Amino acid sequence: xxxxxxxxxxxxxxxxxxxxxxxxxxxxxxxxxxxxxxxxxxxxxxxxxxxxxxxxxxxxxxxxxxxxxxxxxxxxxxxxxxxxxxxxxxxxxxxxxxxxxxxxxxxxxxxxxxxxxxxxxxxxxxxxxxxxxxxxxxxxxxxxxxxxxxxxxxxxxxxxxxxxxxxxxxxxxxxxxxxxxxxxxxxxxxxxxxxxxxxxxxxxxxxxxxxxxxxxxxxxxxxxxxxxxxxxxxxxxxxxxxxxxxxxxxxxxxxxxxxxxxxxxxxxxxxxxxxxxxxxxxxxxxxxxxxxxxxxxxxxxxxxxxxxxxxxxxxxxxxxxxxxxxxxxxxxxxxxxxxxxxxxxxxxxxxxxxxxxxxxxxxxxxxxxxxxxxxxxxxxxxxxxxxxxxxxxxxxxxxxxxxxxxxxxxxxxxxxxxxxxxxxxxxxxxxxxxxxxxxxxxxxxxxxxxxxxxxxxxxxxxxxxxxxxxxxxxxxxxxxxxxxxxxxxxxxxxxxxxxxxxxxxxxxxxxxxxxxxxxxxxxxxxxxxxxxxxxxxxxxxxxxxxxxxxxxxxxxxxxxxxxxx
Length: 565
Fold this sequence. Notes:
Elements: E1 44-45, E2 51-52, E3 61-63, E4 75-78, E5 91-94, E6 113-117, H1 121-132, E7 136-141, E8 152-155, E9 158-161, E10 166-168, H2 172-180, E11 194-199, E12 207-212, H3 223-227, H4 234-248, H5 255-258, H6 262-268, H7 273-288, H8 297-308, E13 317-319, H9 324-338, E14 342-345, E15 351-354, E16 360-364, E17 367-371, E18 373-376, H10 380-386, E19 403-413, E20 422-426, E21 432-435, H11 437-440, E22 447-454, H12 464-478, E23 487-500, E24 520-522, H13 535-552
Parallel strand pairs: 3-5, 6-7, 6-18, 7-14, 11-20, 18-24
Antiparallel strand pairs: 1-2, 4-5, 8-9, 10-13, 11-12, 15-16, 16-17, 19-22, 19-23, 20-21, 21-22
Helix pairs in contact: 1-9, 1-13, 2-13, 7-8
């Protein structure tokens, strides 16, 4: 379910074959990080080392006028997002269509102001919720676009997602986000959970199994699928059913569960190594970004109890059928603009401090922005660097929240080699494979596949040539139609700090939305959402931060999700 809002400067240049940072495991994600090799404004780098433009140019539009809803002049600046590729300049709006985010004074008197630092899903959600309640919001993002680490970039004629992100029907907060930006129809859900699982290590040759659900009540909705699942023995299937019933009784918020690892719990409940590989890790690795021995039992319980054992359709899978940038940047920016949010791209917060009158000041290059509330919606390391003294009891605990990498491999074939939209594997280093042909805009025939590798600690720094030599033959082993197919392109996207690591004990390190400093709040999938590092967790953190700020400001608001109150 992947992660989030990092403001960073672009490294001098990635090695040949690498492109922008890439997070995301097949089951849901928002992924984020800070230190990854990536493209900056200059573009992606292909296998030969030549640059291709990313389309993050900047253009200029200027509005003055009478549609203003505030007196005076306000500014809503968007640097880069609305411009055609290769342009230069900034988008500056003068006038009252900046009703919630300009620098003018409202006709009805003073108005509360807020600064949100970080333009990933957590920051966008926070800004939307604050602005909807009448707060004048400035949103700061260090990159040239919104979306954090769930974004798209241009590579030649393709529009490429930095990593494969999916969500589940139970991800009600992210579904709210999709509805809010008018994007739900562009990221549809399966009618019913159906996951093809290909085992290429079976002694009698490759075998295809499926994890799918019926309309029966929980847990019977998976009973028929489990009973016929060919990758487990009859005894292993029975033991999985017993473990699932035991898991259903757990409280994921129990601190005792956070202190043990998922593998230990599975072992205590009779799960064989094969059952862990063929079922529990098959779901757990992409959602948690960690195998069972490195995953908190509390987070694992949350994933399986919510996704598989809450209601029949909870685990139905959805994913974007358009580039992620269409949802998380273009459409999100349109909604922010409509609310008058002042969005400053390529703008990093340098310092946060108290003003003489007890408000907040956020210093950015060339400007000091004063506000009644500040929300830090950036990764934990960056948050640590911006926190004023005394904001948290032990701010160094943020640095103890480790990170985990994700690797994505992108292959463009000269012919169609996969009939299904996606599949996952056993007995292969390949984890999940998705068909991204249509969403990327590939023309001239062929097929574009994205291979998503979560928990990629052992391969994240492997050279492109080594990854190509390893994975192209492996894809031929999995997909007979790929044998002899021409390779039009092969490239790699990597995110070394894609998500927070869901290790045992991480729960006690994750802070809530409120800090000890009145008016200062935290957001991000790494905060105490109860979820692993996913797009769902990021949006929920935005709800929490905005709700805390609005309550402190005395503004009425309703939580978007009644069940999440």
